[in-house]
Amino acid sequence: MSGEFVSSVCTIIAARNASSTIAAAISSALNDPHVSEVIVVDDASTDATADTARASDDGSGRLKVIRFDINKGPAAARNYAIECSSAPIISVLDADDFFIEGRFAQLLSVTNWDIIADNIVFIREQSLPDFDRRCVPRFGGAPWALDLATFAERNISSRHRQRGELGFLKPLIRREFLTRHNLRYNENLRLGEDYDLYAWALAFGARFLVISNCGYGAVVRSDSLSGRHSTGDLKNLAEAAQLLLKSGILSRQAARAVGAHARHVRSKYDHRRFLDVKARQGLAAAVVMSVRDPATILPIAHAILLDKYGGLARLWHSERALSGNDGKPRYLFDHPTI
What we know:
The chain is of the alpha/beta class. The chain contains twelve helices and ten strands. The protein has two domains: 219 residues, Alpha-Beta Complex (Spore Coat Polysaccharide Biosynthesis Protein SpsA, Chain A); 95 residues, no CATH class. Strands 1, 2, 3, 4, 5, 6, 7, 8, 9 and 10 form a ten-stranded mixed beta sheet that branches. Helix 2 links the parallel strand 2 and strand 3. Helix 9 crosses helix 11. The longest helix is centred in the last third of the chain and has 30 residues.
């Protein structure tokens, strides 16, 4: 491969115990001529992630593998990768996902953006061997601008609809914009760190464009790290949501949407905390805790009712949440705008 690249894109990959998937992720990045750097940060894996990553080098000199001895979380790993890179454009790739051929050519053909993202195809792990990346349909339509109110609203999840939160987006970000606004991933977060960064960027006026064509493949796994968040993770995300809400830089419309999202996250945390206390100290102690904070009573009661009567529906939706019926691939959005 020639040492001259069409553009300077750095792909950063935070990885933990991803030895079975990291090679495919790296390969999909190195195969794109627009990528000038691939920075992998092994976040204290207990498997052969770092060795597998190094073995994926194509000899072009673009791959750098760094290993943490102590697990620090995806936000810290990504921040470190950003600091170790120099390309003017940063792209994020999860260690079990992949880029679809031609992705960066499509994104970089668009002008006047600080952040730009494309569509995502979700593939169940069991269907991956039969998935043909060449057969991903092309979605047309002009780029459209994403504002903070829409972004926040589209990150309020529901148990009764397919997952479609825009926090799933894996955009390209101009380094200059991050530097100018002193933005990095919030290292207190191990859940929702993408949402938090994009929301702050939009609050600072980022021109965030989205194209409907699909260039990112996300593999849906039952044992994904993102699906095993703790009560503490929810607490930290709730606190981060409040920090943005209280920043004083939001428009009235954005503040309403960010506030709704913050309340949604807080209700999930309050419910999880109630269940934790119930498990440790019994139902009476959990009820006393909620009574001491009356604002939590209705959200907790609502969540308990959904848990009690929505078990079968929840199971059905969880199986189809990120992939279509019968395990067929599903797209984050199917139309030029959402």
